[in-house]
Write a structure and sequence with these properties.
The protein is an alpha+beta fold. The chain has helices at 3-11, 21-30, 35-43, 89-95, 101-129, 186-193, 197-209, 239-260, and strands at 18-19, 48-49, 58-65, 70-77, 82-87, 147-163, 169-183, 217-224, 231-235. Strands 1-5-4-3-2 form a five-stranded mixed beta sheet. A four-stranded antiparallel beta sheet has the order 7-6-8-9. β3 (58-65) and β4 form a beta hairpin. The protein is flat. The relative contact order is 0.10. Mean pLDDT is 79; it is low at 1-13 and 134-138.
Length: 286
């Protein structure tokens, strides 16, 4: 790999792309990627510009998500780098145009190339950091967490992220609970909470009671009450797989309605039992 390639890659680490609040929400709902990680990939060319509408400043950038093993489209304002939203290919086809297999292959190839460059750069930085101690100018950073002597608790919401019957992403709160802690680290405490076998039974029962289809739920979210920035996601399946199951359920429901439609009538009624008949009102002269 040439030094010119590494130099260009390092230069492109200056940030241009940034997500809108709507885009950040869609990244969280539809992908397993971190927002900052995605912005870095887009700025470093790990995507394919598949075009933009005539007279529009919004370009459509196709990228590959390695954790989801799936493709998405980021719609970006080319004037200021703002990401407007993130769309799966099926949504993009309905709202804009179809994505070709060749474009998907190129997007994956560019992601792999960018990842290779990042690994080389990381190994070079590691070698530089392994110089003798007296050559190092930077000091190691310390990370502190609050440890309490008395037990405290988090109030959390357990939420299901799922695909609705209209094929849109939805969030439903299953239940609210609290978890105890001494070490104030939200992620560590949630991971400990997930080790409870009773938890999964409770989640399954609530999902049944709320009449949600298990296969359309693609993730569980454990969110700290009154703090939207503190949350932990447990990925169950890809959003694409959940969409496929949602379509399957919709087709089954439509078929059931068609079969039962011949038995339905607005005027169909059973005779009222004699015990429920009201007495007839009549007037008698005094």
């Amino acid at each position: 790999m040439s030094s010119k390639e590494l130099k260009e890659f390092s230069f492109r680490e200056q940030r241009f792309s940034y997500p809108s609040s709507h885009a950040a929400k869609r990244i969280f709902q539809r992908t397993s990627m971190d927002s900052l990680e995605l912005m870095k990939l887009l700025d470093n060319g790990a995507c394919v510009n598949i075009g933009q509408s005539s007279g529009s400043y919004r370009r459509h950038l196709l990228f590959f998500s390695p954790e989801d093993k799936f493709y998405y489209v980021a719609i970006q304002d080319e004037r200021n780098g703002k990401i407007i939203t993130i769309l799966p290919p099926a949504y993009h086809k309905n709202s804009a145009w179809k994505i070709t297999p060749e474009q998907c292959s190129l997007a994956k190839e560019r992601y792999e190339r960018c990842s290779e460059l990042a690994l080389v750069r990381k190994s070079m930085k590691k070698a530089e950091d392994n110089r003798p101690l007296f050559d190092k100018k930077s000091q190691p950073s310390n990370h502190y967490r609050t440890v309490t002597t008395t037990k405290r608790d988090y109030k959390i919401w357990v939420q299901a992220l799922y695909i609705s019957e209209h094929l849109t992403t939805k969030r439903k709160t299953l239940f609210k609970t609290s978890i105890d802690f001494y070490l104030d680290d939200f992620e560590i405490n949630i991971k400990e909470f997930l080790k409870s076998p009773v938890l999964y039974e409770k989640i399954d029962n609530v999902i049944k009671n709320k009449r949600l289809f298990q296969e359309t739920i693609y993730a569980l979210c454990f969110r700290k009450k009154k703090d939207n920035s503190a949350f932990y996601i447990v990925k169950l399946r890809s959003e694409h797989e959940a969409i496929i199951h949602a379509k399957k359920y919709n087709n089954q429901i439509q078929h059931m309605r068609q079969v039962l439609s011949s038995y339905y009538s607005d005027s169909l009624a059973l005779p009222m039992p004699a015990s429920m008949k009201l007495p007839r009102l009549c007037c008698k002269p005094f």
